[in-house]
Amino acid sequence: MARNSSSDDTIMVLPSVVGVGSLADDALLAIQGELGLALRRLDARAAVVAAEIARRSDRALGQQGLAARAGESSAEKLIQKLTGATASEARALTAAGKALDAVQGGGSVWLSTVAEAVSCGELSVASAAAIATGIGEPSAAVSSSDLREVATVLVSCAGTATPEDIAKAARLARARLDTDSVADLEEHRRSRRTLSWFETADGMTRLHALLDSESAAIITGALATALSPRRGGPRFVDPAEVQRAQDMLDDPRSNDQLAVDTLVEIVQLATRAAGATAMFGQKSPAVRVHVQAEALQSSRGFAYFEGQSALVSISTAERHLCLSGILPILLDGHTPIDAGRTQRLHSPRQRAAITAQWNGCAWGDCDRPPQFTEVHHLDPFNGTNTTLVNGISLCRFHHMQLHANNWSIQKRPDGSYWLTPPPGQPGLPGLHAQPTQLHSKCPLQQTG
To answer: How many angstroms separate the CA atoms of 416 and 406, rounded?
Structure first.
């Protein structure tokens, strides 16, 4: 691999496919890192060009706009045609380019650190667009200096986070700066909910739905519970549940077909006012809303539905406290209430509390949702230590990885949790070589 020292450009001499297969692990990962840097730099230039295409395609120009003259209805459509990008990629390019253009023109000063990071290839275009969209613009309650500070923190985190994670963090940061806006954003999302259907030429019916976080939590929670044996859900102990899980694994239908049939059966059960045990076994689907006790008492702040990243208002949390089937998880700071000490398996109440603490698999950047996690004993069970402080939420894959390959998780005196690799783990670039701190994926417990 060689660099052109006269410019920012990176010239790469890539080995053949056979050559790639013969590379050592550290060399292979180094090449991937170099490729990523080169792609980010190219994307930065593409974003500037995309923003200019968007400026010349402004709707105010009508049929004289660049996109219209090229036979496309929008700048994003034209960029898609020119680059082969997806619609979301074209939108991200345009959004990032507009942010860069605004900063260079003396506007959007709160995005200056974002623009600098994109220009030098440290930040991807997708992450830049996520930051710009997520934190929004200054308002009466949020100053440009506040947004600049948040943007700087998000840029510093982007090297180890996906654009999706950055988008969630940006939305959360904006909500923390202006909690009163959460209810407005929630209502805006709710106003956009839709469900439509039409018959296709071959006699099938296509459904199209756009769901707000509350509706999504209810529907996806029910489907995830019903299908959990097929999607890596928790292992069962009760013989009846073991048999039910095995029956689903043996079912010849695909996951997508099972999801459709499950949804149909849920509607049929509702219309017949029948119980849900035939559908979900002993574990009925539960929708949980997580909220800080202090926020609930003061009626200021926000909450969220388990498994969803969009925040909801305190009024929504208050409403669900008295609804059947909704389980409220009250958090005192970051510590759930202990619920039991002597049983071998964590109780449903303990599992709910540990889920509230971690909101999914605690292992690094694993994105498995709460429904597909199990509770791991940090210290081996000794007859009296099935407690909240000795439990952590892991998906089945990482739970097995921990036991099979001698990884370990320790809770330190300061309350932090650390993942330690097995002895002799190679120090590969970008992979665990030393203990790494685990952070909750619960929006109410994230900092920044």
So the answer is: 20
Name residues whose C-beta falls within 8 Å of residue 243's C-beta, 6 or more positions apart in sequence. Answer: none
Strand pairing class (373-377; 205-210): unpaired
> What does the block give as tokens for 61?
């120009």
Query: Three-state DSSP class for 377?
Result: strand
CA distance linking residue 393 with residue 376, whole number of Å: 6
Query: Residue 287 and residue 117: Cα distance in Å, rounded?
Result: 40
How far is it, in rounded angstroms, from Cα 23 to Cα 9? 24
* Chain center to CA of 275: 33
Residue 209 near residue 197 (C-beta atoms within 8 A)? no
Q: Where are the beta strands (DSSP E) in 273-389?
A: 287-292, 302-305, 311-313, 326-331, 373-377
Q: Which residues contact 99 (CB under 8 A, 6 or more apart)?
A: 108, 111, 114, 115, 128, 129, 132
Q: Are 314 and 299 in contact (CB under 8 A)?
A: yes
Strand partners, 418: 410, 437
Contact 80, 125 (CB under 8 A): no
Could you tell me where the DSSP H helices lie in 22-157?
Answer: 25-56, 66-69, 75-83, 87-104, 112-119, 125-135, 144-157
The residues, ordered by sequence, that sit 6+ positions from 210 with a Cβ below 8 Å of its Cβ are 192, 193, 194
* Block mean pLDDT (10 aa), the chain, length 448: 41 55 83 86 89 90 89 90 88 84 77 88 88 89 92 88 89 89 85 88 87 88 77 61 71 82 76 50 59 78 79 75 52 48 63 85 84 79 70 82 79 89 59 76 67
Residues 282, 295: Cα–Cα separation, whole Å = 33
Are 31 and 14 in contact, with CB atoms under 8 Å apart? yes
What's the number of CA atoms in the CB half-sphere (13 Å) around residue 50?
Answer: 31
Closest CA to 395 of 417, 419, 370, 420: 370
- Cα–Cα separations (whole angstroms), residue 53 to 76, 112, 182: 9, 22, 34
